[in-house]
């Protein structure tokens, strides 16, 4: 199965460019497209200062647009998008397809002084997105939540074969992200597709470098720090081969006394 990342900066109302990207990806036979965080809305630091009515209007526009695009191109799109419900603001991750629209509201949010999403967004209990395309079981995992073992165990128990991680990385964190996600890919014998954005806010630079890790923990393909498309193939046989070779799931059953 072919999957892709659209690596770009913020595109609040750029319909023509998104159409262009999707037309290319559809012609290549891509079934699943992933977009990084804060691409369809303002970046978080600007979002903090924006009127809630503006946020709601922008999100409503993007929600309608991507429903139409998923239907037009018959392609599944994973896109982070802010959700406004009355006075509550959620950091949400949408799955748009020709048949339906599903959403997951991020539960664990960054609480740090320089980037305090926990203070800004509301949270509520929400089930992670898990679905099948071409007999490949896919899960969506927001970038910050990718740091927590509980989500990976949940996906492993659900036999997830591809974890897509929409994210936004800055501050020269490339090596840490790559080490973390390739390790989780190897330990869970699954593919991990990281979709990162580019651009900058003030003196913060978002470096891109979206990549696909194989179930053996090796990078299969990777982008640079520019606006680019990543098109890669997910091979179910590779997953089966690594699970058989390492037998992690079988060996975990031998753990006693924990």
Detailed description of the structure:
Helices cover 32% and strands 30% of the residues. The chain has 258 residues and is of the alpha/beta class. The protein has a single domain, classed as 4-Layer Sandwich (Nitrilase/N-carbamoyl-D-aminoacid amidohydrolase), CATH 3.60.110.10. Strands 5-4-3-2-1-16 form a six-stranded mixed beta sheet, covered by helices on one side. Strands 8-9-10-11-14-15 form a six-stranded mixed beta sheet, with helices on one face. Strand 12 (198-201) and strand 13 (204-207) form a beta hairpin. The chain starts with a strand and ends in a 6-residue tail after the last helix. The mean pLDDT is 96.
Share of residues in helices: 25-40%
What is the CATH superfamily classification? Carbon-nitrogen hydrolase
CATH C-level name: Alpha Beta
Alpha carbon gap, first and last residue: 38 Å
Instruction: Give me the number of helical elements.
Output: 8
Biggest sheet record: 6 strands, mixed
Overall mean pLDDT stands at 96
List the helices and strands and how they pair.
Elements: E1 2-7, H1 15-27, E2 32-35, H2 44-47, H3 52-73, E3 76-85, E4 88-96, E5 101-105, E6 111-112, E7 115-116, H4 117-120, E8 130-133, E9 136-140, H5 149-157, E10 162-166, H6 174-188, E11 191-195, E12 198-201, E13 204-207, E14 211-213, E15 219-222, E16 228-233, H7 236-246, H8 248-252
Parallel strand pairs: 1-2, 2-3, 9-10, 10-11
Antiparallel strand pairs: 1-16, 3-4, 4-5, 6-7, 8-9, 11-14, 12-13, 14-15
